[in-house]
Design goal:
The chain is built from six helices and six strands, in the order H-E-E-H-E-H-E-H-E-E-H-H. The protein is of the alpha/beta class and 186 residues long. It has a six-stranded mixed sheet, with helices on one face. Strand 3, helix 3 and strand 4 form a beta-alpha-beta unit. The chain starts with a helix and ends with a helix.
Amino acid sequence: MKRKVILIIAFMATTIMSMYAQTPKREYLDVGDTINTYPKVEWIKGNAISKFDPSKIYIIDLWATWCKPCIAAMPHFNAMASKFKNRGVVFIAQDVMEGDRQKVLDFVKANDKMMGFDVAFGGGKGSDFEQEWIKPAGVSAIPETFVIKGNKLLWQTSPDMINEAVIEMLIKGDFSIEKAKKSITN
């Protein structure tokens, strides 16, 4: 009898630990949530960050080498990064959903001129970035862009929604999603 109880307890403990290991570190990520630290990634180009500076604006674009719309958005992202680099806006191209590090390194090297921003490799399935941001934010397709200011997630959108007017709103402190969407249609 004692042996059965021990086996049942061991089984339950193993089951609970297994369930916990499969749960994302962050359960949910939505607009308005506080984000203080950047997930563990490998910084390929530019400035590595581990914590967000509350005085800066971060525009983080999720991409992959196999994603044609992601690559098509890079010249636009590059133009915005160039225009606003000295105004407290940090642009990050965060590679996601692929595990081939060398392919990413080769892509960045071959496309250096259109990638004038920080670039990070997130890793494949099960990576810290996937557990901290992709799953909790419900990202199922890329490209996807996160806008962070004052350590708050202000917007989760597509890169084509980020334009000069939106960035000016962020800098001036009068950003709202509604205003941003209107600036796209005008």
